Amino acid sequence: MQILAHSSAVIGRTSVTRRGTVELCTAELVLSVKMSESLVVCEVDEDLVKKLRDFRFRKETTNAAIIMKIDKDKQLVILEEEHEDISPEDLKNELPERQPRFLVYSYKYQHDDGRVSYPLCFIFSSPVGCKPEQQMMYAGSKNKLVQTVELTKVFEIRNTEDLTEEWLREKLGFFR
Question: What's the pTM value of the predicted model, to 2 decimals?
Answer without folding.
Answer: 0.76
